[in-house]
Amino acid sequence: MYQEREFCRTEQEEAAGASTMPRLLAVDDHPDSAELVARVAKRCGYEAHHASDSRRIRALLAETRPTLLSIDLCMPEMDGIELFEELKAAGYAGEVLLISGQSAQLRESAARLAVIKGITVVGNLQKPVDIAQLRILLKEQRRSHA
Fold first, then answer.
1. pLDDT in tens, 32-70
2. Nearest Cα to 23, choosing from 57, 60, 5, 49?
3. E strand residue ranges, 5-109
4. How far apart, in Å, are the Cα atoms of 50 and each of 34, 63, 116?
5. What is the C-alpha separation between 75 and 80, in angstroms, rounded?
6. Left if phi > 0, otherwise alpha if psi is -120 to 50, otherwise beta: which for 23?
7. Total-model pTM
């Protein structure tokens, strides 16, 4: 089990203005997985939201305006490939983090397809997600936009 203090923000960081925080939306048909990603993101300095219904993606994008979208590739209502189409149609200009239990080859193919569709993929993680790896990726993304 991981220790939360390894990826918690300091009190000074918590006190900093929330309006300047990057925003993350984690979408996964397993609510616990989406909530975990959002919790780690929040502790890495993101305003974080999570959802388990990919069919509401356009409404969720409008509500949360994420700068980073974490998505599971295999969801029952809409898979990651269909989600890429929705993102493109919605004019999503943020970045995407793929998290999936699928093979590395399939995840890489999905990432290439997303790029072809004009979507910026910043990471490609295997489920179950390695918390330390997720934390590093989120912090790097946050720093790159500071």
1. 999 999 999 999 999 999 999 888 888 888 999 999 999
2. 49
3. 23-27, 47-51, 68-72, 95-100
4. 5, 12, 26
5. 7
6. beta
7. 0.84
